[in-house]
Amino acid sequence: MNELERQLQYPLGENLPEAGRTLEVAPGVRWLRMQLPFALDHINLWLLRDEIDGRAGWTIVDCGITNDATKAAWEQVFETELQGLPVLRVIVTHMHPDHMGLAHWLTERWNVRLWISATDYNAARLASTSTTGFGGEAAAKFMAGHGLTDPEAVAKIKARSNYYATMVPQVPAAFRRLLDGMVLTIGGHGWQCISGYGHAPEHMSLHCAGLGVLISGDMLLPRISTNVSVIDLEPEADPLPLYLASIQRYASLPADTLVLPSHGRPFRGMHTRIQQLVTHHDDRFADVMKACAEAPQSAADLLTVLFTRKLDLHQTTFAMGESIAHLHALWLAGKLVRSVDDEGVYRFAPA
After folding, report:
1. If you write DSSP's letter for every residue of 293-325 in order, what string do you get?
2. What is the DSSP annotation of 237-255?
3. CB 306 within 8 A of CB 267
4. Cβ(144)–Cβ(156) under 8 Å?
5. Most-buried pick from 66, 142, 164, 234 (CB within 10 A)?
6. Is residue 205 in some structural domain?
7. How many domains does the chain have?
8. Strands of 42-52's sheet, edge to edge?
9. Residue 213 sits in a domain of what CATH number?
10. Whole-angstrom Cα distance, residue 190 to residue 59?
11. What are the counts of helices (DSSP H) followed by strands (DSSP E) for the chain?
12. What is the reported pLDDT for 64?
């Protein structure tokens, strides 16, 4: 546990759900974890006790990626954790593969509807039939334009042309739209949708005032900072100010709210965590400004400034997106200027 984590409270301590099993974190709210084949090796998913049209059952929140191991884990959950009741609907907070991957399988398996924001639904449909942001020719060219020119890395990024589709091979043909401020009745409680931007096109968190619980998705994580990236589909995007403004919306929620994040353990101390994240990005902005003042910098140049640990290719693609996001926030705020060097690489210097 690092020093920032010590400032948060973890009411379940070190307890984690076993594979294919759940832990109750609030009345009618159960926590399960699925494995991921990345350095970030798990995702938290949620089961909410529910009733729709007089029929008792469960709502699933987020799905895990598409692979046999995740399907097998879900089948074990269905066998041991549902108390003989069916799944009634599937809610997805946003379109990223670890959240959206098995939505098609789950909705078909139980003949239920997917609930998601319209923006993320359509982004997922597009991405599952092509690529988005972290693989293929366009992504390799985009990252090369920001200084990632190592031939081996470029070749590997080009080869990942079906990156998203391998984990989200299919998207449900129909969906129910989630909108900011919408209140869903789940298990007799109101759950309010809170939209967030910067991490995904239109991420939806769910707040239940009656239970004092926030399903934060990826917008608020206890141990790591949420990935906020610029990708090739929107090459001049400015997502970091959107993300920082979005997390401030949670500051109006009660301080003792139990936060259920997609990665890490459930925690209390939401207001503290918001300030930690703001401070973290302020520090990174200062680091970027200092480096750019010493010499014009590309996003690739800044990887060692922003990330002290060794990165694999998967982490490098996300790190490049984050590096560009920090540069764009300062550039579009007028604090940096952008130029193109003789090799066609964008470099940034103080305005």
Report:
1. HHS-B-TTTTHHHH--S---HHHHHHHHHHHHH
2. --HHHHHHHHHGGGGGS-T
3. no
4. no
5. 164
6. yes
7. 1
8. 23-26, 29-35, 42-52, 55-61, 87-91, 113-117, 175-178
9. 3.60.15.10
10. 14
11. 11, 14
12. 97
Residue 30, SS3 per DSSP: strand
Q: Which tens digit of pLDDT belongs to each residue from 135-149? A: 888 999 999 999 999
* 216 is a domain residue: yes
What dihedral do alpha carbons 25, 109, 92, 113 form, nearest 10°?
Answer: -110
Classify residue 346: in a domain, yes or no: no
In a domain, 310, yes or no: no
Cβ contact 61:91 at 8 Å: yes
Q: Which domain holds residue 55?
A: 5-283
Q: What is the dihedral of CA 262, 268, 271, 276, to 10 degrees?
A: -60
Question: Quick check: helix, strand or coil at residue 72?
Answer: helix
pLDDT in tens, 205-227: 999 999 999 999 999 999 999 99
The model carries a pTM of 0.96
3-state secondary structure of 233: coil
Sign of CA dihedral 36, 39, 42, 43: negative
Closest CA to 142 of 133, 153, 155: 133
Residue 227 CB partners (closer than 8 Å, separation 6+):
199, 218, 318, 321, 322
Task: Inform me whether the pLDDT recorded for 166 exceeds 80.
Answer: yes
Give percent above pLDDT 70 in the chain. Answer: 99
